[in-house]
Amino acid sequence: MTDPLAANKTPTRSDVLAAYSLIRPHVTLTPLLDRVNIKTQAGTKLSIKAESLQETGSFKFRGALHACMLVAKEGARHVLAYSSGNHAQGIARAAKMLGMEATIIMPHDAPTIKMDRVRRDGADIFTYLRGQESREELGERLQQEKEAFLIKPYDDARVIAGQGSLGLELLQQLNEPHDVIVCCGGGGLSSGIALAFDGGPHRLFVAEPAGFDDWGRSLDKGQRLSNDRATGSICDAILTPTPGEITFDILKSRLAGHFAADDRQVMMAMKSAWEEAKITAEPGGAVALAAALFHYQGDRPVCAVVTGGNADPQIFAKALAQDYPFGTG
């Protein structure tokens, strides 16, 4: 089935503004925590955009809702998505709100808590073997079988525009120029924020898991490169194979830099977020905070976006149990 919407276009800042106007009544304006007792590696002020408090516990709800609302206007009755968890939850919740059916393709090792929440919102799940089977090929087959509208997790103009609403909120919440660090998997959120920031005072950086720095390497080389493996980090939510085509086109000229944080630093950031900001951060959602705590060397105040709070209970407990010597100020 052919999607009649311009999912493959490169969105603009005007698209981001239009998306926020559409979804604003249904999303949470998440708080900026600017009085946390932690500083960056360079000793500068650090604030946190607590997007873990968004509907479904992740920024993914923004883009999923926007895309679902647009295809619903075109008469869609069934949506399809592939995701390791947070996009899946966003699509499932949005479809439920709009009275549509949803089918989600998830890796077999996706966190149980995320699968349970997808099913709770009434979506059907198909699993695949991460690193051995292609979720894209499975998606193409199911799209035809179910006559469903495919909504990709990041390389989709409708999703990117919806994610950009977070950037528009930051423009209102940050009262001086900041360096903003955001976790990056496929680049949907980063791209949306970059578009929202066009012409503004803030600089944008992306953060990835160490060993899965396809964005850093791609940006340095000026072309899209892939990760050598699909597993091996606790940051499952942002382990994507390569930057998206649309997202790379947007970000290649708009980013101020990139960071990579290892699993130990991510767990330290999870504990820091809990103890100092009183929020839950899942591993993939804490990478930007880890980058700020252990890698940032600039002189500006920093805002780290904690993008998701759907932490596996065992991993979260392990993070909190460790005696990590992170710095506070």
Explained architecture:
The chain is an alpha/beta fold. The protein has two domains: 13-59 and 158-321, Rossmann fold (3-Layer(aba) Sandwich), CATH 3.40.50.1100; 61-154, Rossmann fold (3-Layer(aba) Sandwich). It contains 13 helices and ten strands. Strands 1-2-10-7-8-9 form a six-stranded mixed β-sheet. The chain has a four-stranded parallel β-sheet with strand order 5-4-3-6, sandwiched between helices. Strand 3, helix 3 and strand 4 form a beta-alpha-beta unit. The chain is globular, with a radius of gyration of 18 Å. The N and C termini lie far apart (55 Å).
CATH top level of the largest domain is Alpha Beta
Query: What's the CATH architecture of the largest domain?
Result: 3-Layer(aba) Sandwich
What is the CATH fold-level name of the largest domain?
Rossmann fold
Specify the structural class.
alpha/beta
Q: Which percent range describes the beta-strand content?
A: 5-15%
Can you give the mean pLDDT?
Answer: 93
C-alpha termini separation: 55 Å
Give me the count of strands. Answer: 10
Largest sheet strand order = 1-2-10-7-8-9
Gross morphology is: globular
Order of SSEs, N→C? HEEHEHEHEHEHHEHEHHEHHEH
Estimate the helix proportion, in percent: 40-55%
Low-confidence stretches: 1-5
Number of helical stretches of at least 4 residues: 13
Gyration radius, in Å: 18 Å
Largest sheet: 6 strands, mixed
How many distinct folded domains? 2
